[in-house]
Amino acid sequence: MKLKFVSCALLCVAGLTACQSTPEEDMPIPVTFAQQAQQYPIKRPVVTLSDEAFHQNIGAFHIENMDLSGKYLEKVSRGTGWKTTATGGLLFQLLFHDAVNTRGDLVSEFSSRGEQSFSFNVAAAGLAPVHSECQLLVFGTGEETLDNGVNSYNWQTSEQAASYLGCKLTQQGQVSELIVERKSGAKPSFRLHQGAQVFQLDPVQAGPNLSQYNPLFQRVEDGYLLGQNAGVQSALQLSLDQSRLWLGKNVAPAQQQWLLAVMFSLQLYHWQDRNWPSLTSN
Question: What is the mean pLDDT of residues 232-255?
Fold first, then answer.
């Protein structure tokens, strides 16, 4: 397995419990589903020295054979221009004894593209494993200053314009597809097929009232509900530390295994799509 960067600072390692946030309240899920579902935790490893840190038992199932690539990032220049905005402001410049920049900054603009892939198996006694293979793509824009000989500091900014997740899930030869598309200022779209069957994947909005009027809040979710016309079969509440998964007790074990593979793919997307290196980094 590949060695990874330590995902938490040394101070965090010294006091692991201090690094965990307070668990959120359970997100709202349909009452009829909650009454016949079993809840399980999904834990994010604090230290990821190897991909095996993501391995864990979830009820009768086991996440194994995790293969998580590093984050690949590239940028392409879109040109250089002059901007009069003095980042940091007058007070910052006076406090740190920088000359007040009244001439502006020479700024380079970039388009950026990031990529990461991951795969894993969901195993269970007496069942063939479900294999999930996913790719995550992000696109963005960035700016960074060039040395203008006036200030002793430079600045850079970046903004994500679009994010995509594509997954292929294989269970006993049957191939399923999961696609997530997020564009800045637009409502996210979700597509999920189990073989030829279409499944419904509904986001549970963190601010449902605000999301009706502001596209920014359409990108903020508490979790997902997954099922078909017959009703919800699984639910996932997203968290940075310990998420919550619900699986319907009346769902066959092989189907529960597939639902878990879908939800764990979405959970990894949620974890990995955060904290990208600066989109202006080399």
Answer: 95
